[in-house]
Prior knowledge:
Blueprint: E1 5-7, E2 18-22, E3 33-38, E4 41-42, E5 45-46, E6 51-56, E7 59-65, H1 80-89, E8 94-103, E9 113-115, E10 118-122, H2 146-158, E11 163-164, E12 168-172, H3 180-188, E13 193-195, H4 198-207, E14 211-220, H5 233-254
Parallel strand pairs: 1-3, 2-7, 2-8, 8-14, 9-11, 10-12, 12-13
Antiparallel strand pairs: 3-6, 4-5, 6-7, 8-13, 9-14
Helix pairs in contact: 2-5
Amino acid sequence: MAEGKKSSDKKNITDIKIGLIGGTGLDNPDLLKDYRELELETPFGKTSASLVIGKLGNAEVAVLARHGRKHEIMPTKVPYLANLWALKEIGCTHIIATTACGSLRQELRPGEFVFIDQFIDFTKHRTLTIFEDKVVHTAMAEPFCPRLRAVLAETAKEMDLTHHAKGTMITIEGPRFSTRAESHLFRAWGADTINMSTVPEVIIARELGLCYAAIGMVTDYDSWKEGEAPVTWSMIVKRVEDNAEKIKGLLLKVIPKINYTECSHCK
């Protein structure tokens, strides 16, 4: 990427309300104008990468590469707590996350978008709460911000992007992909899509009172579908690259529409 200004000081960070957490292939800071980098120490250690602050259209945003700039951090090792804490620390109240995902339904085709409204947690080795020294029972019946998800879906419709306004994401530990038996099991459980990163990211966002929405980009049919090649890493990267401009266009249109007043659902 082009060299940006680096700083470890969060002074002069103003008017940043929206944080973008980039998944596979969608974390390139070059999509921003006049960007600079900000490194923050958090109570939970370092973030996956430095925060990149810059202009997307006319909006000041913060972009964070979930898996590191070179995709060097496996899903289990992503510092989810540090990432979300840092975005809130600089003033973000809303988070839009992008994530590549596999489809567990015939009607969710590769190349389409899903705006997730539910999750199933099938992780095994992750810290699932930001609260270390006390017991906090956080309501999670509706884990994603409905207001933010509605804006995404409405804008995708305006742009004629093939999308699904809701869906259930199952998050597995990774980094391996599912066996065929697991893929069928997840379908039977009611999951529509599958990835390795939504949990605990959405949980931590809710605990911090952040409005969080996820753009799921379908890249494959996981391992369940007869007649389809099982998912591979190269398949995911290719499909994400093919759709990166659509994601950027969606974000450019969505961000100016967001209502940044306090959202009672997410507090």
